Amino acid sequence: MTSTESPTAIGSGTAATEKFSKERVSADTSPERLSAIATDALGALGQVIDKHGITYSEYRVLKQWLIDVGTYGEWPLWLDVFVEHNVEEVAYRGQSGTKGSIEGPYYVADTKRLPARCTLPMRADETGTTLVFEGQVRDLGGVGLAGATVELWHADSEGYYSHFAPHIPDGNLRGTIEVDAEGRFEIATIQPAPYQIPTDGPTGWFIEKAGWHPWRPAHLHLMVKAPGKRTITTQLYFRGGDWVGNDVASAVKPELILDPKPGADGVDRVTYDFVLDPAAQ
Ligand code: MBD
Ligand code: FE
């Protein structure tokens, strides 16, 4: 790998920021609601400044660091690691299907469509233990959902994501699986490694200065969709894996932990079924 191809904080941050910025998102927040939220947010920050006696030099360092987060394109990373889990918990209120988890900064839409029994796109020399992930997409009544799709994306065995690390081909370890007539799927892939927040950018500097750790446990990202059902965005983790009990992004839930076991062929297999709530009316 040449140095220009090595993953850098500024490279993955810039790619994540460019992807997000293309969406031009909107929300129907009224001026009254915005004012109430902003008043409370600024009030909370004011209380922190007061409580800790924040100094002018600390204030200037904060200003510089906030500028650096933008320069490195790390707002998607920082926000999704430290803030998104709270938003996701609010979004799940009133739901009873499969638990959600954060989307994170590395989702890519419109990945390769794959049949219900498939192997995720990977390099000819992809390293890592083979993992067969199977299951069924169902409604709340237990009926399998034909027409559902399971979008799966995950890091490679070194913890890097395609589209956000220059040495990995686009589309690697990503796919949109079309379930069968009973809502079932069986996907062969490789076991991802834990993810480390890059230490050469402002999110990593902040974590190091605070004496925290920069790790997420190994995880699969999923977005499961079906006609007339509420889309779920979630993640699945691996029992006993490093950082499962101590995720820097606070995004692990006990219902989302897999326990793969070797099958008759010696290959690790695991079953996980997804239950979708009805779409909001
Ligand atoms: C990840 O891989 C991730 O899933 C999240 C939420 C944040 C940073 C990197
Ligand atoms: Fe991730």
Give your account of this protein's structure.
By secondary structure, this protein is of the alpha/beta class. Helices cover 28% and strands 22% of the residues. The strands form three sheets. A six-stranded mixed sheet has the order 1-5-4-9-10-11, with no helix packed on it. Strand 9 and strand 10 (232-238) form a beta hairpin. Residues 104, 106, 195, 219, 221 line the site of fe (iii) ion. Keywords: Dioxygenase, Iron, Metal-binding, Oxidoreductase. Belongs to the intradiol ring-cleavage dioxygenase family. One of its GO terms (biological process) is catechol-containing compound metabolic process. Residues 133-161 form the Intradiol ring-cleavage dioxygenases domain.
- Number of helical elements: 6
N→C terminal distance? 51 Å
Major sheet characteristics:
6 strands, mixed
- Overall mean pLDDT: 96
The order of strands across the largest sheet is: 1-5-4-9-10-11
Strand tally: 14
Pfam family, one: Dioxygenase_C
Family: Belongs to the intradiol ring-cleavage dioxygenase family.
Protein name: Catechol 1,2-dioxygenase
EC number: 1.13.11.1
